[in-house]
Amino acid sequence: MNWPRALLTDSGGFQMVSLLHLADITEEGVTFQSPVDGKPMLLTPEDSIQIQNKIGADIIMALDDVVKTTTTGPRVEEAMYRTLRWIDRCIAAHSRPHEQNLFGIVQGGLDPQLRDICLEGLVARNLPGYAIGGLAGGEGKDAFWRVVAQCTAGLPEDKPRYVMGIGFPLDIVVCTALGADMYDCVYPTRTARFGSALVSEGVLRLTHAAMATDYRPLDSSCTCMVCKRYTRAYLHTLVTKEAMGSQLVSYHNISHMMQLSRNLHSSILEGRFPEFVQSFLQKQFPKGDVPDWVCNAMDVAGIDISMCRIPQSA
Amino acid sequence: MEFTVRACSGHGRVGSLRLASGLEFETPSLLMITRRGLPVVIPPEMLMDLHPDSRACQFTPMHFLEDPLAAVVAKAGGVHKLASLTGFAMVAVARDSLGNEIAGEEASNLGASFETSSGRRIVGLEKYMEVVNACKPDLWVSLPDEVPHWVPEKRNRESVDHTSQWLDHCLSLQHAEHGNRCLGVVVGAGSLEERARSAEQAATRNVAGFSLAGFGLGEDVAQRGFHLEVAIAKLPNDKLRHVCGLGSPEEVLQAVGAGIDLLDSTYPYMLTKECLAMTFPLKMEVPLRNADRDMQPTPDHGVASGFSLAKVNLRSATYGIDETPLVTGCKCYTCKRHTKVYINQLLNSNETLAQTLLEIHNTYHYLEFFKAIRESIKADKFHEFRTWFTSQRVFGMTYDVSESFVA
């Protein structure tokens, strides 16, 4: 790749959930039907770690037994315990522990007791970092933030916490307030390909007819190459019609997310994180209609957002 | 705008073109393809540094009829500002090399039919010039009534008449402050007499140069040569000549050999779409054997392994372990950073980055080809260069010049 910066590889575990109709999960590993030729493929924890060792990323993920967040019943418990057994197999198979950081993934669905057991088990293995998995799969926001809060409270203070599959700016701000550090998501680039740009006020749908005569840049506060050079009116004609439209909006959306990360980071360092959160929420919810789940989460996080619930004057 | 012929080799010539904006080019020159003003897959901010000569683009006014509207371009201050390509030459060519099919349909006195984002429609003079004036191109071709060589005589005559009338009409509608930037179209399709007549008429107009149309539509290669010759013989020597529809290396060589100065070509992009990298040698001194791999051509001409001296099929499994760049020694962004194995991997994972990397290389390589052409003209060795190039394309087998090039 000729990429001199940090790299993280996933284990292949997520495909278990997204391709579930192809998978057969046993104690040994996961059997997929290869999307290329239909032949059965078995992925064991050992296989996953070996492949990740060869790819050589800085952070590698354990193979976990992932279930859909909407699953209920004994399958959730089975998956959590199996994840703990598999982490030991991953640790044993890891041949480059001094060069590559193996992160464990906390599972347990939406059940606080299962999550607790998993947290305890993973923390005891003294891994270099931890992911909070099994979320971002269609669960309600109220359940989502509570699981994140429980996990960040139970994970060591001095190790990274990575919430997998999170990418909406609002979700990232909330999870950061609750003590998480890392996120990954296809959302910024996927939404770009469908013609939506991420801006401070929320999401700008470039396909909307009104964009045809809007000569402003995507986001007035963005300094990326796209915002410096192109107008909404022009991008409106490119999105969903030219590959370049996807490229340019993807570029902006990624810049936007990186700027958000920088802002979160520097506002915390400079002791003005609550102010940043307040200003973020006021831009996203000028009518003061901050969702309840955000308010509850900020309560637990200790951030006062009462002023964000008052409508902004025009 | 100033155009000066600097060197000749046969009818081929090297010229220096200085645009009103101050940009200078050496011709023969390649115009890179754009859609709605931007390159198809190359990030616009990478275009400036892609190659020392990557400064000139073609664009199609028909992309600015609705979507975006000419008004949007005008509000931006022209196509350079709209697409943020200030510092580039933007040349308006009516024929859309990527999408348009010239069918020889009936045209009225008011306009010809073109492919647009809302389907095929007649584009009239007023509309065409509204778009051209809004775009403020560095050079623009007059509205053509372009027909293929198989149309009946009557239709062909009509296309010559239309084209000539429309040239005058376009000139009367051009914005005076933009100066003399028109390339008058010359048509004539299947008849050498009509071709000569069209050229004679255009030659008397007050234009910056000429655009030869009606080529690249399946015509016989030798016939094409006669048409180019006949048309150019009627055109003043000291004005620019552009041709549209000719883009492959052999077509470029034929056109340059006849005296053409500017070409827009989709050849690099056509290769990219087929996952091919352009690899033909550019220097007469390089031996026929591939310097990279020292391989003899196989009896199947490398079809199984995707190997050929001219193109490399990056999808082939052969490249799954080939850690060399697309062309060893190539100084393009792609070859300086990446290997065949990486691009092979990207293609097999259906990643669009593969197209971007390939297009960057293919464009660079083609610009180098044009540079080699200019060097050969300056050394008065164009004919030798053309003969060498066309012969090495088929592994030293005798190459019959009358065969059309098949990509």
Automatic annotation (TrEMBL), chain A:
Pfam families assigned: TGT (PF01702)
Keywords: Glycosyltransferase, Metal-binding, Transferase, tRNA processing, Zinc
Domain tRNA-guanine(15) transglycosylase-like: 1-284
GO MF annotation list: metal ion binding; tRNA-guanosine(34) queuine transglycosylase activity
Cited SUPFAM superfamilies: tRNA-guanine transglycosylase
Record EC number: 2.4.2.64
Origin superkingdom: Eukaryota
Gene Ontology BP terms: tRNA modification
PANTHER family recorded: QUEUINE TRNA-RIBOSYLTRANSFERASE CATALYTIC SUBUNIT 1
Name of the protein in its database record: tRNA-guanosine(34) queuine transglycosylase
The species this protein was found in: Physcomitrium patens
Automatic annotation (TrEMBL), chain B:
Domain tRNA-guanine(15) transglycosylase-like intervals: 10-392
GO terms under biological process: tRNA modification
GO CC annotations on file: cytoplasm
Record-linked Pfam families: TGT (PF01702)
GO molecular function, one term: tRNA-guanosine(34) queuine transglycosylase activity
Protein keywords: Cytoplasm, Metal-binding, tRNA processing, Zinc
Annotated localization: Cytoplasm
Transmembrane listed as a keyword: no
Gene3D superfamilies: Queuine tRNA-ribosyltransferase-like (3.20.20.105)
Obligatory cofactor(s): Zn(2+)
Residues reported to bind Zn(2+): 330, 332, 335, 361
Protein family membership: Belongs to the queuine tRNA-ribosyltransferase family. QTRT2 subfamily.
Subunit text: Heterodimer of a catalytic subunit and an accessory subunit.
Role, per record: Non-catalytic subunit of the queuine tRNA-ribosyltransferase (TGT) that catalyzes the base-exchange of a guanine (G) residue with queuine (Q) at position 34 (anticodon wobble position) in tRNAs with GU(N) anticodons (tRNA-Asp, -Asn, -His and -Tyr), resulting in the hypermodified nucleoside queuosine (7-(((4,5-cis-dihydroxy-2-cyclopenten-1-yl)amino)methyl)-7-deazaguanosine).
Protein name as catalogued: Queuine tRNA-ribosyltransferase accessory subunit 2
Phylogenetic placement of the source organism: Eukaryota, Viridiplantae, Streptophyta, Embryophyta, Bryophyta
Encoding gene (name): LOC112286853
